[in-house]
Design a protein that fits this description.
By secondary structure, the chain is an all-alpha fold. It folds into 4 domains: 15-224, no CATH class; 230-353, no CATH class; 358-522, Orthogonal Bundle (Tetracycline Repressor, domain 2); 539-714, Exocyst complex component Sec6, C-terminal domain (Tetracycline Repressor, domain 2, Orthogonal Bundle). 75% of the residues lie in helices and 0% in strands. The chain is built from 27 helices and no strands. It has helices spanning 11-76, 79-96, 98-102, 104-116, 120-144, 149-158, 160-178, 180-186, 188-215, 226-243, 256-282, 289-310, 315-328, 355-388, 406-424, 426-460, 468-493, 500-538, 542-545, 550-565, 570-593, 602-626, 636-649, 656-666, 672-682, 687-699, 722-726. α20 (550-565) packs parallel to α22 (602-626). It comes from Patagioenas fasciata monilis. InterPro entries: EXOC3/Sec6, EXOC3/Sec6_C. GO terms for molecular function: SNARE binding. The exocyst complex is composed of EXOC1, EXOC2, EXOC3, EXOC4, EXOC5, EXOC6, EXOC7 and EXOC8. Interacts with EXOC3L1. Interacts with BIRC6/bruce. Interacts with MYRIP. Interacts with SLC6A9.
Amino acid sequence: MLQRPDQLDKVEQYRRREARKKASVEARLKAAIQSQLDGVRTGLSQLHNALNDVKDIQQSLIDVNKDWRQSINTIENLKDVKDAVVQHSQLAAAVENLKNIFSVPEIVRETQDHIERGELLQAHRKLMDLECSRDNLMYEQYRMDSKNTHDMNLIHTYFGDMQKLSEELGKQLWMVVQRSLVTVRRDPTLLVSVIRIIEREEKIDRRMLDRKKQTGFIPPGRPKKWKEKMFNILERTVSTRIEGTQADTRESDKMWLVRHLEIIRKYVLDDLLVAKTLLDQCFPPHYDIFNRLLNMYHQALSTRMQELAAEDLEANEIVSLLTWVLNTYKSAEMMGNSELSPEVNVNSLDPLISQDVVDELLSKYMSTLTSNIIGWLRKALETDKKDWIKETEPEADQDGYYQTTLPAIVFQMFEQNLQVAAQINEDLKTKVLLLCVQQMNSFLTRYKDEAQLYKEEHLKNRQYPQCYVQYMIAVINNCQTFKESIISLKRKYLKIEMEDTLSSSHTSMDATLDIIAKEGCSSLLDEVFMDLEPHLNELMTKKWLMGSNAVGTICVTVEDYFNDFAKIKKPYKKTMTVEAHRRVVVEYIRAIMLKRISFKNAEERKEGAERMIKEAEQFRFLFKKLAAGSGEDTEGLCDIIEAIAEVIKLTDPSLLYLEVSTLVSKYPDIRDDHIAALLTVRGDASRDMKQTIIETLDQGQSQANPNYVPIFKEITVPTLTVPKLLK
């Protein structure tokens, strides 16, 4: 504390401070010691008093023990008094119940009257009095001599009618409980009275069970357990109500299950609403009556649904059941009803049937649906085939295109089944769509085969069926309708992420439909060219050169047929027009290559060539008219006829090679036999000239127009037969 010289001035101050601290410490020490001494003094005093008390108690116990030993003999002498006290107690109980004992028959009659009049509370009060009298007498008898069954049976027999009254009253109570949902609306007081009686009996049961634990005695018929019995009766009532809603069978009504489920829905919803709004107020809170009833209904419904699932259900019945179980049950139409919330939480409800049962039903449904779809498609096709042989034309759509009802029937069937599947869940909807597509693939193959058979049967007798052309047009149009319907079905029922699963099937169906349409178009054109055959045979003959009107007839016939073909939908009509144009030109060129005529001089060649050019122009005009609006190039094919005509028309034989080479350069698929036939028709080319031209052309190379579609490869040139060679 003293580190610098100037601190010496504070020495006295430091001394006084330290002195105060020392005095304070000493004072605290003295106070503490004094407090300890006072505590020790008090403790010693209390110990001294306790010792004296113990000595007094010890002496008292000695005195009590001495008195007790002296009074043992006296207690044994009081046994008779004890028995007298017990007998007095029993007699007192008998005297107390004497009035009730003598009035038992009267009370029984009064109680019976109360029950018959429906005065249940009064009846129960009388019954309680009787039971109380009997129970007290039997208890006193039990206390006096528990092994004396004779007296016990005597009391029980005397009160025998009381048990019948209890049972009769119970029947009345259970009738009210069974009709509780009706009673609570008409006479809630009656229901409350029943609950009060049950509660009284529950209290008596508890009291008797407690006495049994203490004494071992319990009256006959106890415990009654009326509360437990009440819930059992409610449970049976709920089960009976659910089962009793089936009013019809499959034999009497095809919609029996739909009706049954709808009645169940209505009844259950109505009952639960009544239970929540009215019944809950008539029962004590600890009964939790609404939740108990909710569980009862849920269990009863689960049992009923499992019973229905185990039956041999049809496909539509399986759908009705699953839709109800998986969707309707938890919807706003039933358990999800806003008036039942928040007491009913649909998310906490267990499934009515297990997932295994659901899967089994779905599997059965898919199997049945597969068989049904196959049958429906077969039947639809058979019906459509019958239409094909009718003597009346098929119907036309709003745009005037011929059609049959087959696509509408097929896709209406698919649509209905998909709508039904969508009611259950997305997974089933996708499975049904895949099934429909799969069966559609098989169906289209059969459709193709039937269309081919239709054509073959017609070729046996071209007069039958009368409307063959019109119905073949309808078949072709159906292909386009099928395509559009498939796309519409996919767009409506298939999720985008699932499209890949159907891409291959869709491609396959489109390919099959294109084949059907192509074969249909081909058969129609065959029909045209069978009618044209006599006129085609006139081409490039002497008769033709003399002025035959074969081409005019051909054009009129084609145009007439195409008036009917106007009823073909655009994609296929366009194909028909192009193919008809090509086949007419091919047949015309084939007529040239058949060498039916050989021009004798330049005049005939000129006349024939000009006729060919004129007829090419007729064809061009015709197909330009038929292809109006299609955007097709109708010029190129007829140009081939004109190019051949130019070769025939040539007057200077020395330029023949040049003209032929020009022809070959334009149409590189032209073969040597075609050139030879063309020169033969021309009539002025010697064998050596033909050989020279052909050999020279073989050495040259021609370049085809990239837009040129080979046509000469379809045309064969007839070879000379042996008789002709001999000539």
